[in-house]
Design goal:
Blueprint (H helix, E strand, L loop, with lengths): L12 E7 L5 H12 L4 E3 L8 E8 L6 H4 L4 E9 L1 E3 L8 E3 L8 H8 L4 E5 L8 E2 L2 E2 H6 L9 E14 L5 E8 L5 H12 L3 E11 L2 E2 L12 H7 L11 E4 L2 H8 L15 E4 L5 E8 L4 E7 L2
Parallel strand pairs: 3-12, 14-15
Antiparallel strand pairs: 1-3, 2-3, 4-11, 4-12, 5-6, 7-10, 8-9, 10-11, 12-13, 15-16, 16-17
Length: 302
């Protein structure tokens, strides 16, 4: 176990981590907190233990931006095994045969995939962290109860069939670009249901999270020193959706850090705005007051 670093405070920023199969998102955060000595470390969007791929790790004041990061689209590549179901809707549980998928073709899968588009209502898996009557669904499921999480609206921007392996052990490899809260396990379950043979999620890779791509990610196990993490940190704004940007001078920055509104030019438009200091560093998020013609800070970063 590396010693907890001391000395200069750890900077704010985002680390693009490629999470390994078998480790939890919490374990990645805990390891990097110990390694860097940062006071605040978090992630933006949990990946199931069996899943791999892009996991944004937020350091220091960047942790305050997690709610905005969750609005970014995510892209996944998933292997869906047809002909079986499992209690967890993935490969963590014993599978149970439902139907023979050997008669299915790629065209059948494409047709069934067409319903996963736009805003749809999706029932979360029984083994999930959503609450049913005030208790986590997975806790009810572990006690042998059959929780029925309420269906909720999610948004799917695009679904593509990348590959199809026919036969008695048919597998459909799909790519899904979706919004926050979408369960790929539910898509696997519902695709198999739509095809009449059952289905569950096998391998799952998150290949992109907003502008963070898996090709540029680093495995957390490859990072052995705080300096290595520091060298790979990205600016906090990489996890923000598109926002208008304004520039603050030194005097304006001091006022914004006190939570005070300032007049900036050119005058910003409606919607969320991000304010940067003279060096380009993100200082605050806020909105424009059209009556007073000012930038009003809502979330100030240290």
């Amino acid at each position: 176990m590396p010693p907890r670093p001391t000395g200069n405070p750890f900077p704010s920023g985002v680390l693009n981590v490629d999470k390994a199969a078998g480790e939890t998102s919490f374990a990645v955060v805990s390891r990097l907190r110990r390694l860097t000595g940062a006071h605040r470390v978090g992630h933006a969007g949990t990946l199931d233990p069996l899943a791999t791929g892009v996991l944004p790790i937020l350091f220091e004041s960047a942790t305050r931006l997690a709610e905005f990061a969750l609005r970014l689209p995510k892209t996944y590549v998933a292997d869906i095994h047809l002909g079986y179901t499992t209690a967890t809707d993935d490969a963590e549980a014993e599978r149970e045969m439902v139907g023979d998928p050997s008669g299915l073709s790629a065209d059948n899968v494409l047709e069934a995939l067409s319903v996963f588009s736009g805003r749809i209502f999706q029932e979360p898996p029984a083994f999930s962290a959503v609450k049913v009557d005030g208790e986590r669904a997975y806790k009810l499921a572990r006690r042998g109860e059959e929780p029925r999480p309420r269906a909720r609206e999610v948004e799917i921007y695009e679904t593509r069939l990348l590959d199809f392996t026919p036969g008695a052990e048919a597998v459909a490899r799909i790519e899904v670009r979706c919004g926050s809260g979408t369960y790929l396990r539910s898509i696997a379950r519902d695709l198999g249901r739509g095809l009449g043979v059952g289905g569950y999620l096998g391998r799952l890779i998150r290949t992109a999270y907003g502008g963070l791509a898996i090709d540029a990610a680093v495995a957390s196990a490859e990072l052995t020193t705080a300096d290595e993490v520091r060298g790979r940190l990205l600016p906090a704004e990489v996890i923000l959706p598109h926002m208008e940007r304004v520039k603050l001078n030194v005097e304006q920055e001091a006022m914004v850090r006190q939570g005070r509104a300032v007049r900036v030019l050119p005058e910003p438009g409606p919607g969320l705005i991000r304010a940067h200091d003279s060096t380009g560093r993100l200082v605050a998020l806020g909105h424009a007051d059209p009556l007073r013609r000012t930038f009003v800070p809502e979330k100030v970063l240290t």
